[in-house]
Design goal:
- Helices cover 30% and strands 24% of the residues.
- It is an alpha/beta fold.
- The chain folds into three domains: 8-66 and 492-536, Roll (Urease, subunit C, domain 1), CATH 2.30.40.10; 77-196, Diaminopimelate Epimerase, Chain A, domain 1 (Roll), CATH 3.10.310; 279-478, Alpha-Beta Barrel (TIM Barrel), CATH 3.20.20.140.
- The strands form four sheets. Strands 8, 15, 16, 17, 18, 19, 20, 21 and 22 form a nine-stranded mixed sheet that branches. A six-stranded mixed sheet has the order 3-2-7-23-24-25, covered by helices on one side.
- Strand 2 and strand 3 form a beta hairpin.
- It binds zinc ion.
- Residues 71, 73, 229, 427 line the site of zinc ion.
Length: 539
């Protein structure tokens, strides 16, 4: 099991928060063959019983159950370094300068790709247009996705290449933004497909290496499982191959992309660390690009109320196919209209095909009409939320939504009070992948500078235990794995993280300063900085 052929590992003299109801905090833990076999406080007197085991003195370090991200995008994350990173750009001019350099290094006609721009952080907060970009890169097609992945900016070369002009019709669920001189270069939601269809996707081997890059970053951050939210046939094949050749160290709960799922017949399966039994349906856009479908117009754009990306009948057809084939239905819904329609569609599908343990999920569930919150519980729908979205969006959200709708915005406390299961995540690379940042956002509703001082709509904050739950037991339940994963109880998989401080104690600021020292998955050390663990670290 271990690099040093040790079947049993004893960790003692630590602060071990198990999330086990009966024994929430202990100082010792024993792992045998990848499974937790003991938790308690009396092992130091019995160490002789473990003469065949590897015995590690934790010297007061903290152990938590391994952290799970219920919504993220591994391929986009692993690809970050292959594209221009625009997250720090403070203006369109800066974006254009970065792209000029990339274009100079590219050969003529080669695609220049970038991601992460966010006009909400610029002085000029109107949606950018293509002119500067077209000047900076006249000889290359350029496609730059917004930070949320729900809008793209292209240059003139790309518009011409894809034959997009004033006469091109916006596809259903998308928008080609037009100005006085034709397309502005902004393509929202499904309209991006007019461009992405022309860009060659990485092949199987390239995809594997991209996923491995992402995996290494995740395990170094204490993550033991990622729910990959919307994967293609190639990504699934890459994961399958990694699960078979042993290079998949992290657990992956795969959500298949809707268009892939629609054209395939598959039964749910599990190979090694890969589990495949859910489909991701995108019902609306995002708040930043005003694509989130709202019941009432946006407060800062009275003529807009977002849009649904999928017609209801098609939505129903996919959901029914998923239920019939034993797949879980995970629906991206950000606006209150998208959330309501999703609840309606799932309710009507369940009437037609009653399933007790469907565990359908609404991904994001960001702005929910107050009357719809109890329906999550009644229908058995999980709220799969990303706490850092709240603290990144807080300034923009209030402008978009107005004071009244804020009552149902990022309504974590209301979900918890209604008895709704919450699975936490980050949506990386939209947000940082560090799960401790998510836990910090959950308990503070503040940015990293501590603003606003009292927390943003602080009634909706989570306790530290609820936040931890959302990054451990919540995702385990949301992937039908609560009997195997979650708390550090005897019989559960030994997925855990060792930290340099106890995040349950002291100021929440400590959470941001916490370092991950080691990550174990199935009892195997997959990431390690501790000399004491070197003897059993896999290479
Ligand atoms: Zn996402």
């Amino acid at each position: 099991m271990f690099g040093g052929n040790v079947a049993t590992l004893v960790l003692y003299n630590g602060i071990i928060h198990t999330l086990d109801k009966d024994r929430p905090t202990v100082n010792s833990l024993v792992i045998s063959n990848g499974v937790v076999t003991y938790i308690g406080n009396d092992i130091s007197t019995n160490l002789r019983e473990y003469s065949d085991a590897e015995i590690i003195d934790l010297s007061g370090r903290t152990i938590l159950p391994g952290l799970r991200d219920a919504h993220a995008h591994m391929k986009s994350f692993g690809k970050i370094d292959l594209q221009a990173n625009l997250t720090e750009a403070q203006s369109l001019e800066e974006v254009a300068e970065i792209i000029r350099e990339y274009a100079q290094k590219a050969s003529k006609g080669e695609w220049v790709l970038g991601r992460g721009w966010n006009h909400e952080r610029w002085n000029d907060r109107s949606l950018p247009t293509h002119e500067r970009l077209s000047k900076a890169a006249p000889d290359n097609p350029v496609f730059l996705t917004r930070v949320d992945g729900h809008a793209g900016l292209v240059n003139d070369y790309a518009l011409k290449f894809a034959k997009i002009d004033s006469n091109t019709k916006s596809p259903y669920g998308g928008l080609i933004v037009l100005g006085n001189d034709g397309p502005t270069g902004i393509l929202v939601d499904t309209a991006m497909k007019l461009i992405t269809d022309h860009i060659t996707e990485p092949n199987l081997d390239e995809t594997k290496s991209i996923l491995i890059t992402a995996q290494e970053r995740c395990i170094a951050a204490g993550l033991v499982e990622i729910h990959d939210a919307g994967i293609s046939e190639t990504e699934l094949a890459a994961y399958r191959s990694m699960a078979q050749d042993g290079s998949l160290k992290i657990r992956i709960y795969a959500m298949l992309k809707r268009d892939f799922f629609e054209t395939t017949t598959m039964t749910p399966f599990k190979i090694g660390n890969l589990s495949c039994r859910s489909v991701k349906i995108v019902s609306d856009g995002a708040l930043g690009s005003r694509g989130a479908a709202m019941l009432e117009p946006y407060s800062d754009a009275k003529e807009e109320s977002g849009f649904m990306l999928l017609r209801n009948d098609r939505f129903r057809t996919v959901a029914l196919k998923a239920f019939a084939e034993g797949f879980q239905v995970n629906v991206h819904a950000i606006g209150d209209k998208a959330n309501r329609i999703t609840l309606d569609v799932i309710e009507s599908c369940l009437k037609e095909t009653p399933i007790l343990e469907h565990r359908s999920r609404i991904e994001h569930a960001q702005i929910v009409s107050l009357q719809d919150i109890p329906r999550f519980k009644t229908l058995g729908i999980i709220a799969s939320i990303q706490q850092t979205h709240c603290t990144s969006d807080m300034n923009m959200a209030e402008a978009r939504l107005g004071a009244d709708r804020m009552k149902g915005a990022y309504p974590w406390r209301k979900f918890i009070n209604a008895g709704v299961v919450i699975a936490g995540g980050s949506d990386f690379p939209v947000e940082n992948h560090n799960p401790l940042w998510g836990i910090y956002s959950a308990v503070t509703r503040q940015d990293h500078e501590g603003n606003p001082p009292e927390g943003w709509y602080s009634d909706e904050r989570m306790t530290i235990n609820e936040a931890l739950h959302s990054f451990t037991l919540g995702p385990a339940y949301a992937s039908f794995e609560e009997t195997n994963y979650g708390p550090l109880s005897p019989g559960k998989a030994a997925d855990l993280v060792i930290l340099d401080r106890d995040i349950l104690k002291g100021d929440p600021n400590q959470i941001l300063k916490t370092n991950v020292l080691a990550t174990l998955i199935n009892g195997k050390v997959v990431f390690n900085t501790m000399p004491e663990l070197e003897c059993i670290t896999q290479t």
